[in-house]
Amino acid sequence: MPIPPPPVDDSRLADWRQTDRTIEAPFSTPIVSVETHTVVYEERTQRERIREATGLDHPWRFFFSSRVRLDPPQPPNPMLSSLLRSRVFSAFVDRLADRGLTDITDQERGRLRIAGSAGVRKRYRARLRVDPAAETGDPLVVPVEALVAVWADDDYLVAGGAYPAGSPEAGPDGLVAELRDEVDPTADREELVALINGCGDQ
User: Fold this and answer.
1) Number of domains, the chain
2) Digit-coded pLDDT (tens) for 40-85
3) Can you tell me the distance from the alpha carbon of 12 to that of 128, in angstroms, rounded to the nearest whole number?
4) For residues 141-168, b (16+ Cβ closer than 10 Å) or e, as one string?
């Protein structure tokens, strides 16, 4: 039976568009195989404002949700949960790197509850370097914060994303000024946390 899509609160996605959907078998162990169904979204309203103001078009914020299904089904247990979390966190760092982020560092790990289910969340810091124009030789450097959460319901569930964590650290003066006016780390973090928590309400 095909793995169903992961839970997502569509009511929170008015400013987002789906950019990817994948079903894959990322790994297996001698006792269980693992299949994932992942959807990825990128924020579009803020992106369009920045593009209109600067001419620079880049996916500044993303959000994803994944369902992780085991075959044969296994009830959550400490050893299996620890293995899955380790694989999820490693894959998330790879996802950040694939999106062009560098200097990725593990900042914090803590417990959380999503819709009554216990889970673990990790926070990362990174940098995004964007070349606004090849001839300038002056890349834009933006600090980024990323969050990923793992919890168990009928399946294991994963959700996370990233957003600019502050004003650009370097870059052309005009572009830095425009982005400083657009970036709101507090609001962006709150929205990402709401999107993650919303996955537990579906």
Assistant:
1) 1
2) 999 999 999 999 988 889 999 999 999 999 888 888 788 888 888 9
3) 25
4) bbbbbbbbbbbbbebbbbbbbbbbbebb
Sheet holding 33-43, edge to edge: 16-24, 33-43, 62-71, 156-164, 140-152, 117-130, 101-114
Predicted confidence (pLDDT) per residue in 131-151, tens digit: 876 545 578 999 999 999 999
| Residue 153 near residue 161 (C-beta atoms within 8 A) | no
Amino acid letter, residue 199? C
Instruction: State both tokens at 132.
Output: 């606004």
Side chain identity, residue 188: D
Considering the domain boundaries, does residue 76 fall inside one? yes
CB 7 within 8 A of CB 39: no
d(Cα 14, Cα 191) in Å, to the nearest integer? 12
Domain of 154?
Answer: 10-201
Helix (DSSP H) and strand (DSSP E) numbers for the chain: 4, 7
pTM of the predicted structure, to 2 decimals: 0.91
* 123 within some domain: yes
